[in-house]
Amino acid sequence: MLARLVRVSRTPCSLRTRTSLSPARRLSAMATQSSADRSNLIPFSSRLKEGRALAEDVWSIFNAANLPADCINLGQGYMNFAPPAWVREQAEEALRSVTANHYSHPKGRMRLRQAIKDVYSPQFGRELDVEQNILVTSGANEGQYSVFTAFLEDGDEVIMFEPFFDQYLPSVTFNGGKPVYVPLHPPSHDLAHATSDDWTIDLAELRRAVTPKTKMIILNTPHNPVGKVFTRDELEGIAAVAEEFNLLVMSDEVYESLVFDGKEHVRIANIPGMWDRTVTVCSAGKTFAATGWRVGYLIGPQSIIKPTLAATTRIVFCSNSPMQEAVAGGLELAPKHDFYATQLREYTARRNILCEAFDQLGLKYSQPQGSYFVLLDISDVKFPEDYAFPDSVKGRGRDFRACWFIALEIGVSTIPVSEFYCEEHASIGEAYARFAFCKDEDTLRAAVERLQGLKKYIQKP
Ligand SMILES: Cc1ncc(COP(=O)(O)O)c(C=O)c1O
Asked: Could you tell me which residue ranges the Aminotransferase class I/classII large domain spans (predicted)?
């Protein structure tokens, strides 16, 4: 009826007198319409059905609102502490100025691009050009989205290693891409002390995943949620596949400054021949404990940055201006505050608090060599299958039920890892719960104390 009304109202005046409803009938039709169900008046795009964008995702299930109020949140990967005071001061200063409160150049504010150039040129072993090689984005997420918009044609395949950061999936499918999954292989459950190095890639499997439609490989090192820092050998293997099949590599390195135990963070862009086909993704939110500021940046050759700039300009136009200034200040002042080394020490201590607790409990886990996540092997945690699980977790993997049980009975929330797999490979993830240690030490110690309560649910085979 509404459609008919709209059509009628578009009829030229001369005809309308003959065909339109009288004002009284029109009002009555509208009244009928408004009493009908209007909650789904406008159909939404079918693209939301892909990429699990409409599915009840793990974040809404394991949301603070669904869990006991005093549950300690080691689920979500954001910090429970503020950015360093000297970085916050830069933000305050920016807010007091005039220009930093207004639009920035879509490439990013010059002060920030210059700071990125100064920090990263030595790391990439080349003089980065602030006009051609650096693009500031609204967090790493939007930078990645813009790369997909700039490079994917409908039906192009994008290879991602599982477990994968869940945002990749809708970002790829919204842009017409088709995700193709290659799992990392977990350590054997029998291994006494696994590290994230024991999660391995099978290069033959990667090669088999390539088809004539493959356009891109997404790499994530240091890895969320495994904590794996890809070795030079592994990266050379991936690079060889990219080179052979002419693939773009999107290297998500948002945890670049969290690499533990003296392990080397190798950038795939620095492997010979790879600069021209690699875009490196960074996040100031991760680096400066400022995930809500939404500042990220891309580094790469002009051939990748220029089309991505065209996309990002039409998606957001520019990123948050005052926070760009603050991040520029952060990068400039970091050496003076010995920031990276201090932060690494703090995160190492946080990681160790959790890992020592798992050792005491006798539970297996993969000691992460990067990022701020630990995967705990929950196969030996037994819970009553008839526990009062909500429907949202009942239909999901064992890990969903285990994490729900741990949250309610132990009071520590974590994230089930099967969420980061496609259906076909979800059983690999079902053995793990992800603990985030981007939390202050007191919170971690309180969580560790509660985790002692797990003892009575541990049953070894
Ligand atoms: C692997 C990975 N990439 C990208 C992001 C998003 O970063 P940003 O907050 O800068 O968008 C995250 C955040 O959790 C992440 O874990």
From this structure: 70-451
Q: How far is the CA of 3 from the centre of ligand 1 (A)?
A: 43
Query: What residues contact 332, with CB distance under 8 A and at least 6 apart?
Result: 115, 118
Question: Is the CB of residue 296 below 6 angstroms from any atom belonging to ligand 1?
Answer: yes
> CB of 163 closer than 6 A to ligand 1?
no
Task: Please give the residue range of the domain that contains residue 416.
Answer: 49-82+339-454
What is the per-residue pLDDT across 356-379, written as a single tens digit (0 to 9) for each?
Answer: 999 999 999 999 999 999 999 999
274 vs 219: CA distance, rounded Å: 13
* 438 Cβ inside 6 Å of ligand 1: no
CA of 144 to the centre of ligand 1 (A): 10
Last residue of a domain, one of 337, 354, 372: 337
What is the model's pTM?
Answer: 0.92
Q: Is 165 in the pocket of ligand 1 (CB under 6 A)?
A: yes
Residue 18 has pLDDT above 60, yes or no: no
CB-facing half-sphere around the CA of 261: CA atoms within 13 A: 14
| Residue 165 lies inside a defined structural domain of this protein | yes
- What's the whole-number average pLDDT of the chain? 92
CB of 75 within 6 A of ligand 1: the answer is no
Worst-scoring range by mean pLDDT, 22-36, 113-127, 394-408? 22-36
